[in-house]
Amino acid sequence: MTLKIGHLGPTGTYSEAAALAYARAKLAGVESCLQPYPNIAQTLKAVAAKEVALAIVPVENSIEGGVTMTADTIWQLVASLQIQQAIVLPIHHALVSVAEDLSHIETVYSHPQALSQCQLWLQQHLPQAVRIADNSTTAALATLAANPQAAAISSVRAANLYQLPVLVRSINDYPDNQTKFWAISLQPTLAGNRTSVAFSLRSNTPGGLVTALGFFANRGLNLSRVESRPSKRSLGDYLFFIDIETDRYNCRQLKSALADLDAYAETVKNFGSYDTTIIEVL
Amino acid sequence: MTLKIGHLGPTGTYSEAAALAYARAKLAGVESCLQPYPNIAQTLKAVAAKEVALAIVPVENSIEGGVTMTADTIWQLVASLQIQQAIVLPIHHALVSVAEDLSHIETVYSHPQALSQCQLWLQQHLPQAVRIADNSTTAALATLAANPQAAAISSVRAANLYQLPVLVRSINDYPDNQTKFWAISLQPTLAGNRTSVAFSLRSNTPGGLVTALGFFANRGLNLSRVESRPSKRSLGDYLFFIDIETDRYNCRQLKSALADLDAYAETVKNFGSYDTTIIEVL
């Protein structure tokens, strides 16, 4: 049986590269096929609806931070999505265009995160170009061959796939740019060195967040990430996404910390425990 | 002497509306003039460079969350920017266009936050339209009169200023949409019911964030907001922005909590203590 893996498309995105890296590292011998989706929310909904067995979605970037659509969607979906693996990818953005040189470029297309990750470079080298926010870094590539006034911020790999020239390499503002992806499915995950949980608090609990985080800290469990997102109920009302460092030695402490959180918080979603694969070269 | 107030331009932005509301509420009798800037970073840099006495910048929205450019810039600037006041504005987005109806619209311009705040509406009513991320909600308005295939997400106030028709009112996905702005200057602020601080931790401190937040919680000081941003050093390394509820009864506790944080954290920036003005109707 072929395993279907959903990712943000069209072909050539960093999400697709992460999906290929995941299949290579973790699904050796399993026949798999990739299924692109037009945006991150639809990719996650495809897992919930069992259209695909697995989805690969970006979670956070080392420069621009959390991918808000991923956090907001996994919180909102009723299905209990579970993280199977984290995949960390090095990001090297390139300016892709058939233009002869930068002076001809009037518009630059990419995903908002990629545009942000190259904002200083764009300000310096293409101050007059209009920046167009696409759903992905590759959405515009199919139209670039016919448009010498346009460019896209994408990867060298994507440029090769679309047979387009790379005009400038390595245009990220910070050379050490990485993105973390999650491989998500409906299968429960129980073991791994990282556990991800999201929760909302009953409103107006004084010291509420510190109390909630204390359930973990007081048991010697370290938090490697805390991110807040608006609950969308009112200004100042948040959800919290936390990653907890875990291993087989402290799973009893984790269980009791989670039980305390369950009793204290309004809603808790446990996205499971998983390991991280770091990809050095694509 | 005329007080210069910088804000994200061009004229008509929500930042300008917040600046006008601030001047009305807090600068009665003071002659002031508004100075638009092309992006948020330049607005804040203008205060640091004393080009303007005050800047009004968006901080967070009740639906889309933190405005990352504001957080990243006030952290990076060497000048000690101080928050004088928070201003909360109701946000009612409108679709502005000279098009006869929605079927003619091929592109929609706005600030990325506004595009995100209307993403469900756009998906449903303008699924084929290209979304263009501008530096502000009003950057495209000057060109709309000549372009019946284009629309902008902006306010009714901005449409009136540019003498453009409002095609659809109230297109935000969540009707209860508010944005908080900060009025920022170089003048030290010492009193108010909210205190904003940002800090980075020495790397690999286990339980570091909980320890840092505990300095406040253990003294009965409530945190109304915790937001993490990448330090841009490496994936998993963060800065934290916190808002502390304060009043004249607990300023001694605040002082000692901040002293503990100063000793414990790597870098601490105190943006001052201030009150909040809530604007009901623009």
TrEMBL record, chains A, B:
CDD domains: ACT_CM-PDT, PBP2_PDT_1. Residues 4-186 form the Prephenate dehydratase domain. It catalyses: prephenate + H(+) = 3-phenylpyruvate + CO2 + H2O. The record marks T179 as: Essential for prephenate dehydratase activity. InterPro entries: ACT-like_dom_sf, ACT_dom, Chor_mutase/pphenate_deHydtase, Preph_deHydtase, Preph_deHydtase_CS. Pathway: Amino-acid biosynthesis; L-phenylalanine biosynthesis; phenylpyruvate from prephenate: step 1/1. It comes from the Bacteria. GO terms for biological process: L-phenylalanine biosynthetic process. Keywords: Amino-acid biosynthesis, Aromatic amino acid biosynthesis, Lyase, Phenylalanine biosynthesis. One of its GO terms (molecular function) is prephenate dehydratase activity. Gene3D superfamilies: 3.30.70.260, Periplasmic binding protein-like II (3.40.190.10). Its EC number is 4.2.1.51. The keyword Signal does not apply. Residues 197-273 form the ACT domain. One of its GO terms (cellular component) is cytoplasm. It is an enzyme of class 4 (lyase). This is Prephenate dehydratase. It comes from Chamaesiphon minutus (strain ATCC 27169 / PCC 6605).
